């Protein structure tokens, strides 16, 4: 009987079985860790089930929704403002003018090198100590509000990170794009806006998503300056009930919010890069 006469099903049956995977230390450790995480999740679900308090949920659920909206609006507004500010900062970092590049460098160095909570305190408490001077120039109405101070500090912070993301993405575009556009007589501004920037944004999409997620998780610090975001209302609920599940529900809400953003970003990346799939 020739090889051609053997049916595919017979060949599949005669195929030798895959060798068994040995129980190495790494595999055993992995199974133990997965088991511990599974037990932790099941224990958490059991605790939430047994500690379910309908009266507590009915009383504080509306405040949690209000705090969640404050968190989302604060993060979205700061990220949009930061994205606008990051463009001149990124261009300044790439400028051949040493003065402009130095100013942009120290801006990025300061806001990336210092804690976000310190920046929030410097703007809210630091500038708040100059109330008379701010009243004289008509800015006290802005800086006396904790929400606006948080918005300003978040926008300045994320602008520094987004500037570095954008700068790296622009650097990743081949210089031949500039040369090809110049050979066609296209101005540098049009080249940057219609050729370089769209390609750079594809590269920067994933880091932008990571920055947005980090901003959402870092936004909880505004509760320290009396902004009633999600964490602010959680602190309020705990101070009145001393029930630990108030923080557990907040952690679950943050986790769900991050997961929704992660899947949304994955969908956007697939849509934008579908022409690159071969």
Q: What's this, in brief?
A:
The chain is an all-alpha fold. It is built from 12 helices and no strands.
Tags for this entry?
flat, mainly alpha, 278 residues
Tell me how many strands there are. 0
Structural class: mainly alpha
Output the radius of gyration: 27 Å
Distance N to C terminus: 41 Å
**SSE pattern, N- to C-terminal:** HHHHHHHHHHHH
Largest sheet: none
Low-confidence stretches: none
Choose one word for the global shape: flat
How many helices in DSSP terms? 12
Structure description:
By secondary structure, this protein is mostly helical. Helix content is 78%, strand content 0%. Helix 3 packs antiparallel against helix 4, helix 3 packs across helix 8 and helix 9 packs antiparallel against helix 10. The chain is flat and about 70 Å long. The two termini are 41 Å apart.
Secondary structure: elements and pairs:
Elements lengths: L7 H7 L10 H26 L3 H40 L4 H16 L2 H11 L4 H6 L3 H4 L2 H27 L2 H9 L4 H31 L11 H12 L3 H28 L6
């Amino acid at each position: 009987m020739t090889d051609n006469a053997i049916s595919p099903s017979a060949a599949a049956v005669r195929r030798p079985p895959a060798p068994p995977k040995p129980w190495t230390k790494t595999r055993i450790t992995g199974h133990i860790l997965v088991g511990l995480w599974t037990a932790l999740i099941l224990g958490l679900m059991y605790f939430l089930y047994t500690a379910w308090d309908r009266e507590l949920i009915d009383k504080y659920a509306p405040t949690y929704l209000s705090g969640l909206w404050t968190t989302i609006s604060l993060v979205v507004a700061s990220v949009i403002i930061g994205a606008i500010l990051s463009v001149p900062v990124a261009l300044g970092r790439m400028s051949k003018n040493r003065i402009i590049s130095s100013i942009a460098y120290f801006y990025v160095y300061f806001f990336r090198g210092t804690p976000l909570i310190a920046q929030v305190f410097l703007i809210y408490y630091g500038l708040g100590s100059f109330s008379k001077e701010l009243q004289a120039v008509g800015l006290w109405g802005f800086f006396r509000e904790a929400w606006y101070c948080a918005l300003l500090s978040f926008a300045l912070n994320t602008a520094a990170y987004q500037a570095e993301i954008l700068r790296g993405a622009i650097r990743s575009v081949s210089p031949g794009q500039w040369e090809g556009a110049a050979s066609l007589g296209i101005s540098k501004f049009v080249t940057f806006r219609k050729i370089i920037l769209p390609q750079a944004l594809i590269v920067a999409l994933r880091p932008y998503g990571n920055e947005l997620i980090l901003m959402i998780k870092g936004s909880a610090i505004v509760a320290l300056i009396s902004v009633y975001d999600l964490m602010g209302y959680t602190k309020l609920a705990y101070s009145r009930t001393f029930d630990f599940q108030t923080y557990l529900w907040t952690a679950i809400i943050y986790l769900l919010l991050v997961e929704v953003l992660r899947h949304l970003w994955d969908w956007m990346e697939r849509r934008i890069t579908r022409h690159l799939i071969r």
